[in-house]
Amino acid sequence: MDFQTEIGKAIAHLRREKGMTQAELAEKIGTSQSAVNSIEKGDRNLSLEMVSKFSKALGTQVLSINDSASQSLKIKGGKKLHGEITINSSKNAAVGLLCAALLNDGKTTFHHLARIEEVYRIIEVLESIGVKCKWVNRRKDLEIISPRDIKIKNLNVAAARRTRSVIMLMGPLLHKFESFQLPYAGGCSLGTRTVDPHMKALSVFGLKVDAKNNTGVYDVAVSQSKLHEGTPKKIVLIERGDTVTENALFAAALYPGKTTIVGASSNYMVQDVCFFLQKLGVKIRGIGTTTLVVEGRSKFNKDIEYWPSEDPIEAMSFIAAALVTKSEMKITRAPIEFLEMELEVLKTMHAKIDVSEEYLAMNERTRLADLTIHESKLVAPIDKIHPMPFPGLNIDNLPFFNVIAATAEGRTLIHDWVFENRAIYAADLSKLNAKVELLDAHRVYIEGPTNWHAGELVAPPALRPAVVILIAMLAAPGTSILRNTYSIDRGYQDFARRLNHLGADITTLGGV
Fold it and tell me: CA nearest 307: which of 104, 108, 113?
């Protein structure tokens, strides 16, 4: 598939993610439906001006053009990695905690917060509505002070459309406004993730959302009688989602009564938010389970410091990089509680990984361990690999098993049942000579071991699949080019530089 077709595919995915027809997109950029159809098929050349128009209409970057420090990467692959890497704090915990800071009228300090694009976008949104955000030292600490009066009408729409996390502002804001608007959430292109679970969960607190107005915004109204009645509330989540659980927690924290959340996610970022809320003064029982009982208060005015825990998805990224390049590597400060299932699956694939004694993270709650990865001759697992809610194999870690399976002897079935089209991105590995058989939008067979070939690809517009391609390029002898790497910058800090620290040869290129 050539470069033009890759861009067309990315535009098609982003358009469907926004729920737009080709005709609607054509109207926004001032062209015809047939032209959009031709572009999405890769049959029509695109000027940089037209790419910019698509990006504006879709509310996210289709292609980075001289506006990112790492738009494209040149990878000289086939090298073994070595040495030691320390895991950074969690990206997904960071965005949830930033939204949680809106609950506090005092000063909130987050220590060693991830400095990544997703965090910067949320900070831009918060600053636009009057929140003071300040990086205070070289340790990546962020101070946050919420204003007395949030200026919601000044919200930075462009920044908000580039992150899905904006949806998590509903929980805190419903306590502050009788009505407000939020732009449709952006972020990765992984199929339509409905906001309906959020609406149903927060309706218990009187929130109603009109998302069918074709204006690109959620019109939110809040019934004040439900918000202040003080009687016990019960939320039954129709999906065990991370962000919807966090949104429910935010709403419950500022409700002066008891709220029971049934079907809650117990994933790592939700636990981090719970630990922070407890320090703030919220009483929460059931952390780590699927039922949370929250006793909130009507106001919080406290100077508070919190250390987000380490990122299990970043840890899995380096585990995959070591296994696929057949390398020896030590990974320190890995959140072992959220990697146990992944390590057990890898054990069945004959991966050689030593685990140290456990110790506590700076939040004094999350269990960490050091991992030593040894060169391993992998075999395909007997059973399929599929994700499950915690304590199962993490949904965000599943894509890494695509490239690991391509390294293993035998045929592996990967079943990505959560997202509508993420499994499709596994087919990109075939451009680097992997044997990939796509059964449908959720299931893929991968047969290894792969004799990797270098190639030039546009990074998928989804974070984890983009990193998977980069890892495969590390294993491929020769020079590969990975273009439009903004999706990687969204979730990883200095990822290329840190891989180079381990012996990789990755160079940042300019715009396309």
Answer: 113
Number of helices followed by number of strands (H, E) in the chain = 18, 23
Give the per-residue pLDDT at 65: 44
The answer to whether the CB of 442 falls within 8 A of the CB of 213 is no
Q: Which of 81, 77, 120, 79 is CA-nearest to residue 98?
A: 120
pLDDT of residue 68 exceeding 50, the answer is no
Distance CA 493, CA 423 (A): 25
Residues 5 and 23: their CA atoms lie apart, in Å, by 20
Tokens representing residue 411 in the block: 């045929």
Backbone dihedral angles phi then psi of residue 247, each to the nearest 5 degrees: -60, -45
For the chain, give the percent of residues with pLDDT over 90.
60
Is the pLDDT at 52 greater than 90, yes or no? no
> Rounded to an integer, what distance in angstroms lies between the CA atom of residue 82 and that of residue 281?
44
Six-digit token string for 417: 């049942």
Asked if 396 and 313 count as a contact pair (C-beta separation under 8 A), the reply is yes
pLDDT band for 1, please (50, 70, 90 cuts): very low
- Residue 474 CB contacts under 8 Å (≥ 6 apart), including other chains: 75, 77, 79, 81, 321, 324, 325, 499, 504
**pLDDT of 303 over the 60 cut:** yes
User: pLDDT per residue over 413-457, tens digit each?
Assistant: 999 988 777 888 888 999 999 999 999 989 999 999 999 999 999
Show Cβ contacts of residue 392 under 8 Å, excluding neighbours closer than 6 positions.
341
CA–CA dist 93, 480 (Å, integer):
32
| Helix/strand/coil (H/E/C) assignment for every residue in 429-449 | HHHHCCEEEECCCCEEEEEEC
Give residue 100's identity as a one-letter amino acid code. Answer: A
The DSSP letter of residue 435 is E
Q: What is the pLDDT of residues 245-273, one digit of tens each?
A: 999 999 999 999 999 999 999 999 999 99
Bridge pairing between strands 478-483 and 456-458: parallel
> Helices in 21-63 by DSSP H: which ranges?
22-29, 33-40, 48-58
pTM to 2 decimals? 0.82
Tokens 């979730």, located at residue? 491
User: Amino acid identity, residue 289?
Assistant: T
